Structure formats: structure tokens, C-alpha cells
Amino acid sequence: MPKDRGDEKEGTQGGVKIKPELLDEALKEYRGPQDLEEIFKEFEKAVLERALGAELSQHLGYGKGEDKPEHQTNHPKRASGKRILTDQGSLEIEVPRDRESSFEPQLIKKGERRFSGFDDKIIAMYARGMTVREIQGYLEEMYGVLVSPDLISQVTDAVMEEVREWQNRPLERLYPVVFFDALRIKIRDEGAVKNKAVYLALGVLPDGTKDILGIWIEQSEGAKFWLRVMTEIKNRGVSDILIAVVDGLKGFPEPSRQRFPHPRFRHAWFI
Predict the structure, then answer these.
(1) Sign of the C-alpha dihedral computed for residues 33, 38, 39 and 41 taken in this order
(2) For 243, left (φ over 0), alpha (ψ -120 to 50), or beta?
(3) Domain spans of the chain?
């Protein structure tokens, strides 16, 4: 007789099943919505500590309660406390250690104080034009976490370094088609919000895959700007563009001809 699926009501998320008994245990102190935040934090703490413990067991080659292999001289040491910043705020966890100090946790690395997702919040707010002080105030108000301006700057500076690496990466030698377009957006610049143009070059490779060649921010366009863009693209390894698709970009054709032998121009309207 087929099993009644109504009897299988276990919490699931992303294919992971949570047994009802575990949920009952976690919620036994629940009295109202005000308790949920603390329950979530305790649950997150337990999961993180269990996962770190599993990493240590894998590193040592044996788990808690198991016999130590004959060749193994290393063994667990007393865990150390660590405060980390998560999406839900500040959290105190116990990080396992080993006698030889050779264990390098991957979930939360040594010296790391921010768990996955926290940096993304800072970056998202920074991208929306919030200042460092505004981000600091928002995080304190929403999560009860006082984050230093230096930490916020450290996160945004790290992202900017990645952006610079991406913008300067080598490109393919040939792009049969490249689309050049621009849109105007509001950007915070030196404490003021200004209208600036963001220019995009989208290349199509011979196999049909697409590649963003670069993104440039400029207050106004013209031949000088496009010459700089074309020079940059050429210096990054592009030897030829067969068709350049543009929509009335001022000063575009001549710099393109100076840097590439025979581009054909097509006009398009982007929706």
C-alpha cells in the first residue's frame, strides 16, 4: 500500500529534511513572536558549531567518541570563543581547535569575523549610494551591531579591488559582434548625487556566448572618451571587432576605426 505523504511532514529546505522532533525541541520555549529571534540565533549557533566540529573530525581522521588512529598524534583541544557578525546580527560561537594548531576551518576561516551574507548587505547599501556613516547607522538600528567605519571601508575597498581586476582582465582576440550602449543613472560622487552615464560593451563570441568587455562611467561622451575605451579594449587583447552595434553614441565611429581595421557599424534601438 502506498505510503500516505501526509505522514511525511518534515520541514524541508533545499532538499535537507528537518525532523519534527528537532523542531519540537527548538520551539519548546516558544511563547510568542518575540522569542523567534533568540531561537533562530541559538539554532544558527548550534548548526555552525556542529559543522565546524565535523570539519575538525575530517581534519583529524576521527570523530568525537571514536578511537584515535595509531599514526595520529594530533587531537582536539579546548574550543575558543569567537564573536562573528551574521545576517541576524552578532553571534557568540565556540570554534574547535587542535593540539598542533594545523586545523584551518573553512566555514569561518581564522581571523574572519563576518559570516557569509553580511558583507553583501554592506555592498548593497554602498551600491545604492549610502555613505559609510549611513551604513553604520542602519546596521546598528536593524541588527543591534555597531560596525566601525574602517570595517565598512575594508569591505567596499576589497570589492573595488575585485572590480579593478575584472575590468583589466584579458579579452578574446576576435568578437564578431559588440554592442555598445549607455544609460543614465544617479550616482553618489563626493557627497553629492549626480547624473552620470554608464557605458557598456557586450561582446558576442563566435560560438554565440556573450561576454561583458567592460563598464565605464563618464559624465559626457565624445571622441576622446571612445578613443580611451577602444584603446583599453585593444590593449586587453582584442585584435578585431567585425560589427559594432550602437545607438547614436556621440563621437563613436572615428575612434573605432583608428583602433580596429574594419568594423562595420549597425544602429539599433535598445528596449
Answers:
(1) positive
(2) beta
(3) 15-115, 119-166, 170-267
Locate 31 and state its grid cell: 511563547
| Beta strand spans in 114-251 (E) | 174-189, 192-204, 210-218, 240-246
CB 223 within 8 A of CB 254: yes
Chain centre to alpha carbon of residue 4 = 42
Which of 222, 229, 184, 164 minimizes the C-alpha distance to 203?
229
Instruction: Cell numbers for 158, please give them.
Output: 576589497
Single out the residue of 95, 143, 138, 87 nearest to residue 116, CA to CA.
87
Q: Which of 130, 175, 185, 171 is nearest to 153 (CA)?
A: 130
What whole-number distance in Å separates Cα of residue 182 and Cα of residue 201? 9
CA dist 169 and 87 (Å) reads 32
Q: Are 134 and 125 in contact (CB under 8 A)?
A: yes
Cell numbers placing 231: 584603446
pLDDT in tens, 22-80: 667 767 777 777 677 777 777 777 877 888 888 888 888 888 888 888 888 888 888 88
pTM of the model: 0.50
Residue type, 112: E
Task: Give me the residue label for grid cell 560593451.
Answer: 201
End-to-end CA distance of the chain: 56
The Cα 250–Cα 258 span in angstroms is: 16
Q: Count of CB atoms within 10 A of residue 56's CB? A: 20
d(CA 255, CA 236): 16
State how beta strands 264-267 and 240-246 pair.
parallel
C-alpha cell at 186: 544617479
